[in-house]
């Protein structure tokens, strides 16, 4: 350590991403994506429209219909343009404005690029092991790799005995070829059972069975079919099959449901603008119930990177699993430790906002319960301190992003219980009643860590001594009474913001 740093608390940082680091791929992807989006802002022009988030090809989102579209994969950047055939010759070899803007951004950040691998507006290019022909609209295996695996397969067929490693290498190459026509995988069956025989028998070398030889020869004969045609039409019929070894069920669609018809009338990705900033939200639902916190993120049109559900009720967990299969489940708030939260930090390192929400059991503090024992004495309601404890752990681990918390409970609790819960949370609650905008009165207290703002239709009232602050919802009932029907009431609600747009400040509770 340098002398001037001895005795001081320091943080070690690497200037490069180490090989094998758990999050190196996601970090490299994130950095490169930022460079691409920044380039359209720092170097305006045609690049601004090209580098729009809705035009990016991503695995975690639907295919975009934007033209041009772009793709980031680690250190690779691909710009795909659909042009008229008469313009093909004039554009050949020229530099697209978006690529020029990105190169300028590379220079700003001193990011090196591989000149030998550069392709500038070519109808023929090699992209990650695939040869792409823009004129024919097809992609097929790279010729050098295809010849290598073809020669390896023929050599294997000539050998008297083979090792497991030799068969694995050859079959791995054939799987690569079949990725350009996935139906070819159906011609490889006996080879996998043969590879498994080495494990069962413990033999180092075995002779190739006749059925394995037949499969290898047949696959070689089918290689000309290994190509993707990007101009094929989509079949309107949707199918699904049972991928298990024992099942054989196949289902096919015969008509659109009401929800399917509604989705078919919607706009495709690439036609609507998306948020340029990647606000990816991780939600942590304590006493999660049926996952209302996770549902709220969807209703607000925000991007969820994941949801963590802490809930004891098996029935409620089944409801959440049926709608959000990817959710991480935990049975009790008491089981959440710092080691647990560190796992969340590792799995959701790309989160830019974490929201910890919890509605502790309220039976022990509800004014409607004659047998209530209070916030500290009731074994159920006394779990509320875990909201603050877990929020503190999340803030410590997720030091790179914002962390906010929300706690909810009944408004009928007495002042003493409210004071105890406020001391634990670190702030006074807001009183809200959904009866101002629905036909159900549901007064609740909300402790939140962010600031509310007034705007049209939203008024904030300061709390009087002994009473909480209030946020009354704009009352819609008088409009419904004038109209004389509840159906009119439904039409008066403000529409939800379109996907990709955040609501106006202060509207989160009203939405």
Give a summary of the structure in a few sentences.
The protein is of the alpha/beta class and 511 residues long. It has 16 helices and 18 strands. Helix content is 33%, strand content 15%.
Describe the structure.
With 511 residues, the protein is of the alpha/beta class. The chain has helices at 24-42, 47-50, 88-91, 97-108, 143-158, 164-178, 190-201, 210-222, 258-264, 292-299, 314-323, 338-347, 385-397, 415-425, 477-483, 486-492; strands spanning 69-73, 76-80, 124-127, 130-133, 138-141, 162-163, 205-206, 228-229, 239-241, 250-252, 280-286, 303-310, 328-330, 353-358, 402-410, 430-433, 443-448, 469-470. The chain has three domains: 18-122, no CATH class; 143-229, no CATH class; 280-492, Vaccinia Virus protein VP39 (Rossmann fold), CATH 3.40.50.150. 33% of the residues lie in helices and 15% in strands. A hairpin with a 4-residue loop joins strand 4 (130-133) and strand 5 (138-141). The radius of gyration is 30 Å and the shape is globular.
Number of helices: 16
Strand order of the largest sheet: 13-12-11-14-15-17-16-18
What fraction, in percent, of the residue positions are helical? 25-40%
Distance between the termini: 54 Å
The CATH homology group name of the largest domain: Vaccinia Virus protein VP39
Radius of gyration: 30 Å
Q: Give start-end ranges of low-pLDDT stretches.
A: 474-511
**Total domains:** 3
Based on CA inertia axes, which overall geometry fits? globular
Q: Which secondary-structure class do the elements indicate?
A: alpha/beta
CATH top level class name of the largest domain: Alpha Beta
Q: Average pLDDT, to the nearest integer?
A: 82
Largest sheet: 8 strands, mixed
The strand count comes to 18
Q: Quote the beta fraction.
A: 15-25%
